[in-house]
């Protein structure tokens, strides 16, 4: 029997984690045994990521005052705040219409994106272009960005501290573009932007609010390439997205 390549096993586990969340990957502590004495109630504390942008007393940086996407890119493209900058070829800022009514947000750059300095230009990018066309959006009329702007090694999921460092840049992009709707591709994008803890199964196909902007979560195109059977569910999601868009802009 042929052995399964380690890379395929890792990709399969990552897809399972995206769909079912961290439940299958977390070690559960045993429940305390009953004693004749009353056992105090155990309160589970969920540790939310610290939102560094919420500190009113944090010093203002130049990029926070940027008036355009070009100015913002110029001010942050040489960022060295997290370890991801050490191996990058290009800082992948984002691309598309600066006045877009729709933003698409993914996880992070892959190998081809790192080479070209543009988001979603590999096989997953072509599939994203096809998905957008299917719901009557041209790629150049939306704006595409990622949670992190430098490629994680071996395309691994960005670490929490890497996401926390980079997300303020994404939020500044959103504030400059002011889209009417956002489509999050994959669980990492949903966790980063919406601060959600649920699994992708629980989140996808529903609408959420980000500062008054309608947000939907669906599958990442890379996951669809590995698991084509999920394309039908993704198609149902993006049809809902288009319907909501038509209702908002009419």
Description:
Strand 5 and strand 6 form a beta hairpin. The protein starts with 5 loop residues before the first helix and ends with a helix. The model is unreliable at 23-29, 34-39 and 41-48 (pLDDT under 50). The chain is 38% helix and 10% strand. The protein is globular, with a radius of gyration of 20 Å. The longest helix is centred in the last third of the chain and has 19 residues, at 231-249. It has a six-stranded mixed beta sheet with strand order 1-3-2-4-6-5, with helices on both faces. It has helices at residues 6-20, 69-76, 111-116, 123-134, 160-177, 187-194, 200-203, 221-226, 231-249, and strands at 95-96, 102-106, 143-146, 181-185, 207-210, 213-218. It contains nine helices and six strands. By secondary structure, it is an alpha/beta fold.
